[in-house]
Amino acid sequence: MGQFVVKFILLTILVKSKFKSSEFYNMSGTIYKTPNGLLPYQLTPTGSPDAKDLRLLVLGDSACGKTSLLINYKDGKPATQDELAYIPTIFETYNCFVTNKEIGKTYNLTLQDTAGQGDFKDLRTPVYAEIDMVIACYSIDSSVSLANIQDVWIPEVKQTNPDVPIVLVATKSDLKDQLGPEQIVTPEQEERVANAIGAIGHVQASALTTENVKTIFDICIAGYGSIGTIYKTPNGLLPYQLTPTGSPDAKDLRLLVLGDSACGKTSLLINYKDGKPATQDELAYIPTIFETYNCFVTNQEIDRYGYCLLFH
Ligand SMILES: *[C@@H]1O[C@H](CO)[C@@H](O)[C@H](O)[C@H]1NC(C)=O
Ligand SMILES: *[C@@H]1O[C@H](CO)[C@@H](O)[C@H](O)[C@H]1NC(C)=O
Q1: Is 108 in the pocket of ligand 1 (CB under 6 A)?
Q2: Is the pLDDT assigned to residue 21 strictly greater than 80?
Q3: Which of 95, 106, 130, 131 is the pocket-test mutation for ligand 1 (most atoms within 8 Å of CB)?
Q4: Same structural domain for residues 258 and 213?
Q5: Has residue 10 been placed in a domain?
Q6: Is 40 a domain residue?
Q7: Among 62, 158, 160, 212, which has the highest number of CB atoms less than 10 A from its own CB?
């Protein structure tokens, strides 16, 4: 069974591995990419009727650069000096559409900004319940803002939305060229917080140079839509459950079991599709010519559409 699952996962990867090569994103040890990199999504002026909604919330200490990141991303160009100047946010929401033409997927992103000040907690709490994913920001020159992610911000979100996936982002990465190493958070500090909060991804970004800004959102989409990208979460393998009915949007995935006769291939399939141990009758060796089974599996939490598995 274990081996079968591994085969299944490998196949998922093979089926989906048609992406750009030579990109690698260091996600604090989390496997969070296709074999060839992250799937890129581009801003598109118009939405599509079948765009999936994805609500992202940025949070972190005030003045750590959250709003600049959002502006940079939605406008697709570097933030201006005016935009980089710190203007405290109460609440702002931006909307934009992004698409990957190759696989024909469009997302309707809601970018939800938050006020970083402690006294706006009552305003933040209802928003936490509505969001699909958190982008947790700290400033690369402030170890206090990094510590606050673990000590303040993530505990506050998790009170309302305990399982929300988190992408950890260091802002103002351009400061690495201007400040001494003692003024910059260390990779060990970052790694510790990333692991403590169970971040699904971790990147350093700059709204000034635009470095990695787009990557943040590509990670969010990959994490949410599970377009073949997550094959291991921070907590292990992503579980899919059998479901009696499929969704019209289920993706087809064709799997072939092979190996010597009488090695138990058919019993594995029966066991998996029925979700229970094979009976003695089924375990008894009956030579198979060719049989095809069909079943639907889904992971409600991250993949609303699921897969339609076809076993040959
Ligand atoms: C995109 O999302 C926003 C906010 O959820 C919603 O108001 C809007 O109708 C959506 N647009 C489309 C085309 O789905
Ligand atoms: C990722 O970053 C960590 C520390 O930030 C480093 O120790 C590790 O070697 C990096 N991994 C890769 C594959 O670059």
Answers
A1: yes
A2: no
A3: 95
A4: no
A5: no
A6: yes
A7: 212
**Ligand 2: distance of its center to the CA of 214 in Å?**
20
Tell me, what's the pLDDT at 35? Answer: 42
pTM exceeds 0.70 for this model: no
Nearest atom within ligand 1 for CA of residue 51: 14
The string of pLDDT tens digits covering residues 223-248 is 775 433 344 444 445 678 888 887 77
Q: Which residues of 69-95 are buried (b: 16+ CB within 10 A; e: fewer)?
A: bbbbbbeeebbeeeebeeeebeeeebe
What share of the chain in percent tops pLDDT 70?
A: 73
Which atom from ligand 2 is nearest to the alpha carbon of 187?
Answer: 5
Boundary (domain end) residue, out of 190, 225, 260: 225
Taking the centre of ligand 1 as the mean of its atom positions, its distance from the CA of residue 262, in whole angstroms, is: 54
Total structural domains in the chain? 2
One-letter amino acid at 143 equals S
Number of continuous H segments (helices) and E segments (strands) in the chain: 10, 11
Which amino acid, residue 288? T
26 Cα: distance to centroid of ligand 2 (angstroms): 6
Burial class (CB in 10 A: 0-12, 13-18, 19+), 238: middle
Q: Is residue 1 part of a domain?
A: no
Least confident of 17-21, 173-177, 308-312: 17-21
Ligand nearest the Cα atom of residue 31:
2
Is the domain of 136 the same as that of 270?
A: no
Q: What ligand 2 atom has the least distance to the C-alpha of 27?
A: 1
| Whether residue 260 is found in the same domain as residue 201 | no
Selection from 145, 151, 196 nearest residue 169 by Cα: 145
Compute the distance from residue 44 Cα to the ligand 1 centre, in Å.
14
pLDDT digits (tens, 9 = 90+) for 149-192: 999 999 999 999 998 889 999 999 999 999 999 999 998 999 89
Q: What pLDDT was estimated at residue 226? A: 47
